Amino acid sequence: MKPSAKLTLKAFLVALYQQNSPLSESQTTKLHQIAAAISDNIAQLDTLAKSDSIFNEYYQKNRQALLNPAAVQKQGLKPNVNEAAENRAKEIENISRDLNDEELLEITQKVLTSPDPVKAAQEIQEIRYLVPGTPTL
Fold it and tell me: CA-CA distances (angstroms) from residue 42 to 11, 46, 51?
């Protein structure tokens, strides 16, 4: 799978995860059509995301976070440093997770074919780890 396709799938899935309300019936129907041949229709997800201003805001933020993860990691206040803990652990595990192409397509298929794609995305734990800095719900 091309890197641009993976970027689109990840940003779209996390945007669904971040949604506060279900998609419209027409959007859900369009997702079902896209899911029928997901490998050929990935670019249509980008078009669909741009058709809804609120969803597009989530989608674009996720794309930027994936393109430039360092910018997301630098946001926010400086943390309080616990010197004892700092001296104990020299490495902090990265909580973002990458999926191989098969796993990503499988999860995408499951979410896009669901009657409620937003709820389906929120129920799959792996989705929140696809983009660095994704808040948990």
Answer: 12, 7, 15
Angle at 117 between CA 113 and CA 120, to 5 degrees: 100
Distance, CA of 7 to CA of 10 (rounded, Å)? 5
The model's pLDDT over 82-94, given as tens digits with 9 standing for 90+, comes to: 666 556 555 544 5
- 3-state SS track over 70-96: HHHHCCCCCCCCCHHHHHHCCCCCCCC
Q: Around 97, how many Cα atoms within 13 Å sit in the side-chain half-sphere?
A: 11
Residue 108 has a pLDDT of 94
